[in-house]
Amino acid sequence: MRKSKGVGTRSSNRVSRVAKEFIRYRFDCIEVPRSTYYRWIQKSWKPTELEKQIIDSCKSLKYRVGHRMVKKLLKEDHQISLNRLTVQKIMQKYKIQCRVKPKRKIKIAGESKCIVPNLLEQNFKVDKPNRKWVTYITYLNFGESTMYLSTIMDLYNNEIIAYRIGVTAKLKWTVIAR
Q: 149 with 166: CB under 8 angstroms?
């Protein structure tokens, strides 16, 4: 069988007109221009080279640095000068914001873990030297670090007999301090 001339073209024109009207109606419904839709369809969703460098920097530092440090590293290592807000926006896009390191709870005041018997029973009066000694550990905070001062004092004249300073508080210091 042979096709008659022009039969197929009219129906295909009608289909293409219906398709165009459907597409136009669809864009009107979502209120997006056609050009924006087609640009969105052709867009590459893979990370750019800059985004890959930022992701690699954060990954190598175990996500412990913020956007300011990443900006500084990009400038120093790769000679890339960026606004910090651009770096922050990229980090937020890929959810690689700085993970805050959990702070350790330092127990300075409160109940002691090591409870010793009360041998003096609040009797601090002494007749002769070297009869009663007491010890005390003081916490010395220097910025982010803490040092400990362990002292041994004679109760006869409140004289410091020995002391020791260290970065950890240990019970054996009070014995070694002498």
A: no
pLDDT truncated to tens, each residue of the chain (178 aa)? 555 555 555 556 666 777 777 777 777 777 778 788 788 888 888 899 999 999 999 999 888 889 999 999 999 999 999 999 999 999 999 998 887 767 776 666 656 667 778 888 888 889 999 888 888 888 888 878 888 888 889 999 989 988 888 887 766 655 554 4
**CA dist 178 to 20, 114, 119, 124, Å?**
95, 21, 20, 21
Q: Which helix (H) or strand (E) holds 55?
A: helix 49-60
pTM of the model: 0.41
Bridge partner list, 149: 138, 165
Query: Exposure string (b/e) for 146-156, b if CB count within 10 Å is 16 or more?
Result: eebebbbbbbe
